[in-house]
Structure formats: C-alpha cells, structure tokens
Write a structure and sequence with these properties.
The protein is of the alpha/beta class. The protein is built from eleven helices and twelve strands. The chain has one domain: Alpha-Beta Barrel (TIM Barrel).
Length: about 325
C-alpha cells in the first residue's frame, strides 16, 4: 500500500487508551485530562477488526501505544490475537514501565516481539519531578523482568535542557554490555511540550557528547523495511546500539512508513496534522470490511508530504501514542 508520494505504508501505531498513570511534563497536564467514556473508545474487537483490514492493505507491523497501554484490560489477549493475523510480522508495545512487572510474562507468552520503554532518567528525584509521580522503583522492576528476554528492547529518552542533561551518558552506557537500543528523541512541540517551557537538546550536541566519551559512533546498517525513523550507531566494543530520532533537525518524511489510530478510532496519517479518517464512525455505521478498506486506502493515499510542527494539529501526544 502506497501513498500519493510513492511511500510504502506498512507500520501502524494503535493507541488503546488515552489514560496514563504518569503526568510527564512534556506530555500531560498535572491535573490529568478529561476521561473519555468507555463507549467512545474502540473495543478490543473493533481494534482487531481494523487491524485485520490493515493487514489486508499491507500493514505488517503494529505497535500498541497509549496513553499507557498496560492500563487497558486484557491487553495480552489482544497481542495474541494480533499475532495470529495473517500478514502481521511484528507486534510491539510502547510503555512507561510502571505496570510492566505485572504483565511481562503474559505479554511474552502472547508472542510480543518488542518493547519500547520510555525512560528519561536513572535518577529517582529527576524522575519524580519530570513525571510528577514517585513510581521510579516500579519502572526499574519492570525493566528487570524484560532485560535478557527474547524480544527487542528499546529505551526511549527525551533529552531536556536543564532537566536530564546529566543522564544521557548513563543511559547510553547501558548499550555497552546489553543487547538493547537506547534512543534519544527530540522534543516535539505538540500539546504540553509546546507550552511547558521545556527545551529539548539538539541531536548534534548529544552526538558530540557521546563521541567525546565513547569514541567514534559507527553507523549500523539495517535492512529492515519495518524500521521506524531512528538512525542507529555503535561505539567500538559496545554490543548494543544508540539511536537518534530528530524530527526537527532532519525531517525523515520521505521515508515515513507509518499511520496512527487513536483510541477513539481516528486514523491519523501524519503526527503533525489532523488529516485522516474517522474509522470508528464508519465501523459503527455498519460499513462492510471492503468499504472500510477502500476508505482507509484513500485516506492513506492522501497522507501529507511532510510534517510542520506549528499548531497544525489539535491532538495531544498522549492521544496518539507519539
């Protein structure tokens, strides 16, 4: 399945809830958000139906996101069902790790292929200040349950000026002896990040800091059409990899292969625009699978050429899962 610019779209991020058990300063207001009624959220059966239509259209990788997806009841059951869909090669999960210890065994047994753990610091005080919750110990316990497991493990860090500057080397050093990927993601000016007063750290600066401490960062060449926008590197004698996602400094829109489905069932074809399709509406109107597939195909064909982070979307980051 391709869009009007010839890009192959094979990766879908599906948000299963907009709720979260943290209140990260760049993502969600301290007071939380108005909860969407259960009836307005796609049911697991509806998510599975849309995912099956996605698979027929050429989607081969699904990432489950939130909010915090582990707050959604019966998530391991959904993982298992998605893994059984013909054409779906990978099912992965993005989580803040607070509940990971409780569900890691079930998720692995269900066939989960990978976990992206959002972790901006290894300092308990900074964690509490940034997330507005004292749950650092829960995250570390959850991380320990999946370290060494037979799945892909990525640590996602958003570097913030004056907040977690001192954590960059500590996090990156994990890749020296662990077969994991630590990724540094530029702060994107969407929602709370736009108004929080927080400032990101340019990727070039982080790259320079890492090379000064670890030596040359050698590019890792991966031939994987399902890979996202991260570019990976490996210092000499390191077993893991260090990745960078710099949507502001270097647009990677020409290689974009993804779409997003919000918890309320809106198909969002670009993170920075509201363009897309209200899939929930046509699902509940009684449209057949072929009709829905055609409308999804048309929406994806009209996917914007590139993103512009300048107030072009009304969606918050916690609604679309990043």
């Amino acid at each position: 399945m391709t869009d009007q610019f010839g890009r192959e779209i094979n990766y879908a991020r599906i948000s299963v809830t907009d709720r979260c058990n943290l209140r990260c300063r760049y993502c969600m207001p301290e007071c939380g958000v108005k909860k969407i009624s259960h009836a307005e959220i796609l049911s697991l059966e509806e998510i599975l139906r849309v995912a099956e239509i996605f698979s027929r259209l050429g989607i081969r990788k699904i990432r489950l996101t939130g909010g915090e997806p582990l707050l959604r009841k019966n998530l391991p059951t959904l993982v298992r069902a998605l893994k059984n869909l013909s054409g779906i090669e990978q099912v992965t999960l993005t989580t803040n790790g607070v509940l990971l210890k409780n569900f890691s065994a079930e998720l692995i047994a269900a066939g989960l292929d990978g976990i992206n753990l959002s972790l901006d610091t290894l300092d308990e005080k900074i964690f509490s200040e940034l997330t507005r919750r004292k749950l650092f110990g829960n995250v570390l316990e959850g991380l320990q349950t999946v370290l060494g497991a037979r799945l892909s493990l990525k640590i996602n860090c958003v570097p913030l000026r004056g907040v977690n500057d001192g954590e960059i080397l500590r996090l990156a050093s994990w890749t020296e002896k662990n077969f994991i990927k630590v990724r540094f993601i530029e702060l994107m000016p969407i929602g709370c990040a736009w108004s929080s007063g927080l400032r990101g750290i340019p990727t070039a600066e982080i790259f320079s800091t890492l090379e000064k401490n670890f030596g040359a960062l050698v590019p890792v060449r991966e031939k994987n059409s399902l890979q996202g926008p991260a570019k990976y590197f490996r210092p000499k004698n390191f077993v893991g990899q260090i990745g960078f996602i710099d949507a502001l400094e270097h647009k990677f829109c020409g290689e974009c292969n993804r779409i997003r489905l919000t918890a309320e069932g809106f198909l969002k074809t670009c993170l920075s625009f509201d363009a897309g399709l209200d899939v929930k509406k046509i699902l509940r109107a009684g449209d057949g699978d072929e009709e829905i597939a055609e409308k999804i195909r048309d929406a994806i064909y009209r996917k914007p050429r590139e993103h512009f982070f300048s107030g072009t979307t009304n969606f918050q980051m916690y609604q679309v899962g990043g």
